[in-house]
Amino acid sequence: MNAIGIIPSDRFTYTYVLKACVVASLPKHKEIHAHIFRHGYHTHIHIMTTLIDVYARFGSVQNATCVFSQMPQKNMVSWSAMIACYAKNGKPLEAFDVFRDMMTHVLLPNSVTMVSVVQACAALGALEQGKLLHGYIVRNGLDSILPVLSALVTMYARCGALELGRRVFDQMGKRDVVAWNSMISSYGIHGFGGKAIETFREMIRHGVSPSPISFVSVLGACSHAGLVEEGKQLFDSMWKEHKIYPSVEHYACMVDLLGRANQLEEAAIIIQDMRIEPGPKVWGSLLGSCRIHCNVELAERASRRLFELEPTNAGNYVLLADIYAEAKMWDEVKQVRKLLEAKGLRKVPGCSMIEVKRKIYSLQSVDEINIQIEQIHALLLKLSTEMKQNGMYVPDTRIVLYDLEEEEKERILLGHSEKLAVAFGLINSSKGDPIRISKNLRLCEDCHSFTKLISKYTNGEILVRDINRFHHFTNGVCSCGDYW
Ligand SMILES: [Zn+2]
Ligand SMILES: [Zn+2]
Questions:
Q1: Gap from CA of 54 to ligand 1 centroid (Å)
Q2: How far apart are CA 163 and CA 172, in angstroms?
Q3: Which Gene3D superfamilies does the entry link to (predicted)?
Q4: Separation of 324 CA from ligand 1 center, angstroms?
Q5: Which ligand is nearest to the CA of 419?
Q6: Which ligand lies nearest to the CA atom of residue 442 in the structure?
C-alpha cells in the first residue's frame, strides 16, 4: 500500500498506518516519521510509542532511541516499548539503563515492562540483578502473572541457577505452555537432555498440548546432550501425534542434532528431503557442525548457499575461514578473508559479560578501556606460563585464523574476551564465589580447555554461558563433556 499517499492528519490514522506498515520497508517508516514531525504530531505519546515499536521490530534501535529521546512526555507504555526494543535487539545493558532511568521518574513498572527487564537480565547472565528483580516482582504483587514467572524461570536458568528457576516453576499454581517451554529449554541449555524430555512428557500428561516452540526446546535439549535417537523419535511424533508441521526451526534442530553427533551425511540428507525451503538457519546449523568435525567439503557446500542467502552475514565467512584454518588450508583462508574485506563486512567482536558485586562489566577481546586491563593481562600471562610449565596447558593455536608465528598466535589466544573475563573475575570476586560469565559467541576450544584448567588450578567454580549452552567448570572438568 502507498502509506504516504493516504496519510491524513489524524492521530488515530497515524497509529493505524504505522501498525499496518509493519510489513512494509524501513524507508517507508522513516518517511512517515518525517511526516509526523512536519505535522506536529510528535507530541502525541501514543503515535511516538507506536513508532518506537515499529523501529524495534525492524531492529532499528538507533531510530527508536532517537524517537524516544525526542518525546517531550513519556508514559509507562513508552518506557516499556524502549526497554523491550533494547532487550529484543541484543542490547541488554541499555535496556537496564532505561529501566533504572524509568525508576527514577517514579513510574511503577507493570508486568509487561518486568518481562522485558527480566529478559534483559537473562541475556546479561546477571544473577544478582535477577534476584533483585525477583524481589521487586514479589513486593509489587506481580508474582502471580504467568508471563512474568516464565521469564523468571528462564532468567534463573540463563544466569546459571537452574535450581532457582525450578523452584519458581514448582511454585506456579497454573502453568501454560510458555511456562513448560521455559523449563524444558532451561534443562536443555544446561545439558540435561533426559530431564528436558521428562518435563516435555510431564507437560503432555498435565493436559497441556505442546506448541511448535516446545519442540524447538526439546529438540535443542536432545542436541546438547547428544540424544540422537530420542530426538528423531520426537521429531517423528510432531506430525503423527501432535499434528504440528515441522518448520525451518525444527529442521535446523535436527540438522544440529545429527551434525553435532558427527552424522553429517545424514544431516545433509535431511536438508535434501525437506519439503520447505531450508533457509539460512538450516544451512547455518550444518556449517556449524562442519566446524566441529572439520568437514571441508560439506562446509563449502553449506557456505555457498549461505553466501547467496545471507550475503552480509560476516559470521558465515568467519566459520568457513575457521574450518579452512583448522585444515591448514591457508590460501583458502586468505580468499575468504579477502571476500569479507571486499564486502566491507566485519567479524562480530567477541564480548563477555561478568557480574561482580552487583555490577555488570563487559569485556571485549580488544579491550583497552577497562582500567584493570594491565592487571588482567599480567594475571593471564602468569597463569598460562605456570600451567604450560607444569605441562597442564598447551595453547590450541589451530583456531587462530592467521598464519602467524606460534608465539603471536598464543598472544592472540590469551586476549580472547572470555579469558579476560575469567581473569577479571579471579581478581575481583570474593573468594569461594563462583565466577559467572556470558559470551556472545560460541566458546572456542582453547578458552574451553583453558577455563577447565583454571578451575582446577585455582580450585574454583566457573560458569560460562555461550551462544549455545552452559558450561559449568569445576576441578578441571566441564559439564558439557567437551560436547558443545
Ligand atoms: Zn577463545
Ligand atoms: Zn563445556
A1: 36
A2: 14
A3: Tetratricopeptide repeat domain
A4: 17
A5: 1
A6: 1
Tell me the per-residue pLDDT of 421-434, one tens digit each, with 9 for 90 and over. 999 999 998 888 89
Specify the amino acid at residue 158. R
Cell of 175: 502453568
Under a CB-based contact definition with an 8 Å cutoff, are residues 78 and 49 in contact?
yes
pLDDT at 401: 67
Which residues, 6 or more positions from 379, have their beta carbon under 8 angstroms from its beta carbon? Answer: 423, 426, 427
Centroid of ligand 2 to alpha carbon of 60 (angstroms): 34
Q: How many angstroms separate the alpha carbon of residue 416 from the centre of ligand 1? A: 5
Q: Which residues of the chain have pLDDT under 70?
A: 1-29, 366-370, 401-403
Neighbouring residues of 127: CB distance < 8 A, sequence distance ≥ 6: 156, 159, 160, 161, 355, 436
| Cα 90 from Cα 179, distance rounded (Å) | 23
Which ligand is closest in space to the CA of residue 416?
Answer: 1
Residue count (the chain): 484
Picking from 301, 297, 296, the residue whose alpha carbon sits closest to that of residue 282 is: 301
Judge whether 100 and 360 are in contact, CB under 8 Å: no
